[in-house]
Automatic annotation (TrEMBL):
GO cellular component, one term: plasma membrane
Compartments where found: Cell membrane
SMART domains: Cache_2
Stored InterPro entries: Double_Cache_2, sCache_2
Domain Single Cache as annotated: residue spans: 31-114, 163-242
Organism: Geobacter argillaceus
Main location class: membrane
Family annotation (Gene3D superfamilies): PAS domain
Position of the signal peptide: 1-22
Entry keyword set: Cell membrane, Membrane, Signal, Transmembrane, Transmembrane helix
Name listed for the protein in its UniProt record: Cytochrome c
Membrane topology label: Multi-pass membrane protein
């Protein structure tokens, strides 16, 4: 009898095992990918352009250079030969078609086309980041270009990144805090310098003195320097300084979420600001999300 029960239990387990395994797979959390919609759109457009070029060869260049299926909003395709010659473009760089752009440099002096050509020759595909004029808002912004080499043609699609990451915000906060500990006066001057290293796209530093609640620095809005921050509110009516002090003063570190104007997009967006108490001031650097 006991043997029959064991055999019956084993049979039930074997029959249920596949279902249990399937259930485990069903509840297992999916691996999340962190990609912006612009990045996905750019990758999809590049894939279509590569396939089209493979089927049509240089006849595809004309299609890439005119309004049509290879322009997706602010995204477009451009093609550079491995010899550095611009061969096609659906954007403003169409003015460069026929010219050697191998030594073209970005706003910081980076030879990004040369980097793209050299990498494409070696690996066949890649990504390069540089700083370029975004004609939609007339501002220099970070741009990422994905590219793939087909024969001796490099097909590319790029997109702008108007928003910095939380890691970049934390890094800038560390740099700003260190600068204050070395020389407060010089640090404030550097934070307010519109062409300085402490203003990076939508990232900037602000400093509020805990003694009198006044701004000592504000990279995005220098006119706030010297004004009282005590009653400053975001567009939803949140009083900011009191919450910043409450978050940062006890441990020396803090974080606050609120709404504020993004200096790049010029739109009110959700912002997360990291805070640090250094000597007698609160230092803040925040990043924006849509």
């Amino acid at each position: 009898m006991l043997r029959a029960i064991i055999l019956y239990s084993t049979l039930i387990f074997l029959l249920m095992a596949p279902a249990l395994h399937a259930a485990e797979k069903a509840v297992a959390p999916a691996k999340e990918t962190v990609e912006s919609s612009d990045a996905k759109r750019a990758q999809a457009l590049l894939a279509r352009a590569v396939d089209y070029y493979k089927g049509n060869k240089d006849r595809a260049l004309a299609a890439f250079s005119r309004a049509g299926e290879f322009i997706n909003g602010d995204l477009y395709v451009y093609v550079v030969g491995t010899n550095g010659q611009m061969l096609a473009s659906g954007g403003s760089s169409s003015a460069l078609i026929g010219r050697d752009i191998s030594d073209l440099r970005d706003a910081t002096g980076k030879a990004f086309i040369r980097e793209m050509i050299d990498t494409a020759k070696t690996t066949g595909a890649g990504t390069v980041e540089y700083r370029w004029l975004n004609r939609s808002d007339r501002k220099i912004e970070r741009k990422v270009v994905n590219y793939q080499k087909v024969d001796d043609r490099i097909i590319a699609v790029g997109f702008y990144i108007p928003r910095a990451s939380q890691e970049q915000a934390k890094t800038l906060l560390d740099q700003a805090s260190n600068a204050i500990t070395i020389d407060q006066t010089s640090a404030y001057t550097a934070f307010n310098d519109l062409n300085g290293k402490f203003i990076q796209d939508d990232l900037y530093v602000f400093v509020i003195d805990l003694k009198d609640s006044k701004f000592r620095a504000h990279g995005a809005t220098p006119r706030l320097v010297g004004t009282d921050a005590l009653d400053l509110k975001d567009p939803t009516g949140m009083t900011l300084l009191k919450k910043m002090i409450a978050n940062a003063k006890p441990s020396g570190y803090g974080k606050l979420e609120y709404h504020w104007r993004n200096p790049v997009t010029e739109k009110v967006e959700k912002k997360t600001t990291f805070l640090r108490k250094v000597n007698n001031v609160i230092v803040g650097v925040g990043y924006y999300t849509r």
